[in-house]
Amino acid sequence: MSTLLSSSIGTYSIRKNDTRSLGESRRTSRGGAFAYGEITFEALTQVILLTNIEPHSVMFDLGSGRGLAVIQTALTFPNLFSKCIGIEMISSLYHVSAAARDQLTDEEQKRVEFMQGDLFKVDWCNANLVFMAATCFDEGMMKSFACLAESKLKPGSKIISVSQKIPSQRFRVVHQDLYRMSWGNAQVYISELL
Ligand SMILES: C[S@@+](CC[C@H](N)C(=O)[O-])C[C@H]1O[C@@H](n2cnc3c(N)ncnc32)[C@H](O)[C@@H]1O
């Protein structure tokens, strides 16, 4: 596990083998959809409070990495979220999140789930809140994601996206501001499906 993630000033490098096995096509000129960084605890807490999400909601983190945002959301807001689910494509990161889930109590584990898979293939239509750190997602990925989100989500569902707005007129930005990430500040958007 020690070679899994190499820490360097708040960012992490993913082993080359992991991205190689996924193919070059997902990497982009901006460093690739698989470059790694995380939202800070404070930023995620503040932003979730601003979503005004209804109690007993379902949260998905699309690209959940080590799973910290999912576990944090489930443990910090037990009344707001009945389930928090992370989808992560890179096997080594998924396994870190699964191991972190194993550390939770049985009750907490019932509300936390991780899946290894592609956010474009796994079903997340029951989400009321989607979190997506989209800093390294290219324009094509964002457009494909917007089409999927329009068709999958119920009106009123919210998306928290880091660095990029959802490129769709069916989403209205209800909040945006700069928040602290592990690599520095980034714009965060809360969008609502009309
Ligand atoms: C910037 S990290 C965010 C980690 C975590 N969500 C957070 O903010 O703390 C983005 C993650 O998205 C994952 N990812 C990129 N494309 C993906 C895809 N198509 N399906 C699932 N995960 C993907 C990457 O492997 C990476 O772990």
Describe the fold and architecture:
The structure is a single chain. The chain has 194 residues and is an alpha/beta fold. The chain has one domain: Rossmann fold. 29% of the residues lie in helices and 30% in strands. The chain contains six helices and nine strands, in the order ββααβαβααββαβββ. It has helices spanning 16-22, 41-50, 68-76, 91-102, 106-110, 139-152; strands at residues 5-8, 11-14, 57-62, 81-88, 112-116, 129-133, 158-162, 171-181, 184-193. It has a seven-stranded mixed sheet with strand order 5-4-3-6-7-9-8. A two-stranded antiparallel sheet has the order 1-2. Helix 3 links the parallel strand 3 and strand 4 (81-88). The longest helix is centred in the last third of the chain and has 14 residues, at 139-152. The protein is globular and about 40 Å long. The chain starts with a strand and ends with a strand. The relative contact order is 0.17. The model is unreliable at 1-12 and 19-31 (pLDDT under 50). Residues 33-34, 36-39, 61, 63-65, 68-69, 87-90, 93, 118-120, 133, 135 line the site of S-adenosylmethionine (SAM).
Quick structural summary:
With 194 residues, the protein is an alpha/beta fold.
Topology (SSEs and partners):
Layout: E1 5-8, E2 11-14, H1 16-22, H2 41-50, E3 57-62, H3 68-76, E4 81-88, H4 91-102, H5 106-110, E5 112-116, E6 129-133, H6 139-152, E7 158-162, E8 171-181, E9 184-193
Parallel strand pairs: 3-4, 3-6, 4-5, 6-7
Antiparallel strand pairs: 1-2, 7-9, 8-9
Helix pairs in contact: 2-3
The protein binds S-adenosylmethionine.
